Amino acid sequence: MGHIIMPAFSFRAALSEDVGTRSGFALTEFDLLSHLDRESDIAKQLSCEGVLRLSSEIYADTVGDLLFTLGAAKIKGMPTLGIRFMSTIGDDWQDLLTIEELLRIEAVANEYLRRRNRESGAQNEVYIELRTLLGSKRLHLWEALQEAMALELAHSPFYTRKIDNADAVALSELFKSEKLPSEDSRFFDQRFINYLAAHPDKIDRMHWRQFEGMTAEWFQRQGYSVELGPGRNDGGIDIRLWNPSIPVGGPPTIIVQCKRQKGKISKVVVKALYADHLHEKSQAGLVVTTSDLTPGAAKDVAARAYPITTANRQEVRRWIEAMRIPNAGIVLNFDIPAPAK
């Protein structure tokens, strides 16, 4: 596809915009460079201040690598539309399509996306050709092709992508901000979930309030009614949970204490949570932590039969991985009519 020649700072700015609009993050140059392999040729070139000459393929692959590193894509690099289509169908794609059919579908689908991206009025004829190519197989393959086209349009820098600046979130907010999503139905940003799934080593670096939000988000997705405390002056109870069958406002099913820290949780925390459990008349208490209980605290829980359990670092990582949706929300926005039967 040729080469792009421009100053390194222009490449950095272009990458920040291309990756940012596809991941939903407002990225600084520091964010950009810190998420590239420092030993890679592209990282070394982008760190300089000279004029660079990069092939369009390398540029696109760099966008894909960054999307993967930020948790916004499932694989590294920038696969072709045909590869995306094959991957979406699965290993048995050869039972459904010949190589010639696949290449033809890829070419016509790319042309459809180009016209769609240019908002050209001449999209229908290409769309009809695409339906014809799928033939009797189209109902079986249509969903896979639409997903592949959606990913291509959403991830590839060769297509224009726009978002409202108000919709972008700074990656630094995960580590520095107490601000949680303002929507009533959400406690934690999906983009942060995806990022932490890609960087589980950074779980204990997230802001303590974001950690509380992530915990609340997990239990809401499990079907609990969730009351997230104010974050400060909460009396030691960070989250109250009610089973769907229990009215909110009465004694909670579970009270939760969140501890985002490297050091292990002491007896004092466990005893305080037990006291809160008795006061609240809850069914159980739960400590959610990026660490674990000290042996002494665990011994107290067992010996005194406290109705308290622990979700430790390993469990929290499992939650994050289970909530991960790499192509969710701001990344995908693609719909075209289903083909007629």
Structural commentary:
- The chain has helices at 8-23, 29-34, 41-46, 56-69, 81-89, 99-117, 124-134, 138-155, 173-176, 190-198, 208-221, 267-280, 295-303, 313-323, and strands at residues 3-7, 25-26, 51-55, 169-170, 225-228, 239-242, 254-259, 284-289, 308-311.
- It is α/β, with parallel strands linked by helices.
- The strands form 3 sheets. Strands 5-6-7-8-9 form a 5-stranded mixed sheet, with helices on both faces.
**Count of discrete domains:** 3
The span between the termini is 37 Å
Overall SS class: alpha/beta
- Gyration radius over CA: 25 Å
Indicate the low-confidence ranges by residue numbers.
Answer: 329-333
Proportion of beta-strand residues: 5-15%
Q: Under the CATH scheme, which class of the largest domain? A: Alpha Beta
In CATH, the architecture of the largest domain is 3-Layer(aba) Sandwich
Q: Can you tell me the CATH topology of the largest domain?
A: Trna Endonuclease, Chain: A, domain 1
Helix content: 40-55%
Could you report the average pLDDT, rounded to the nearest whole number?
89
Largest sheet: 5 strands, mixed
- What's the total helix number? 14
Order of helices and strands: EHEHHEHHHHHEHHHEEEHEHEH
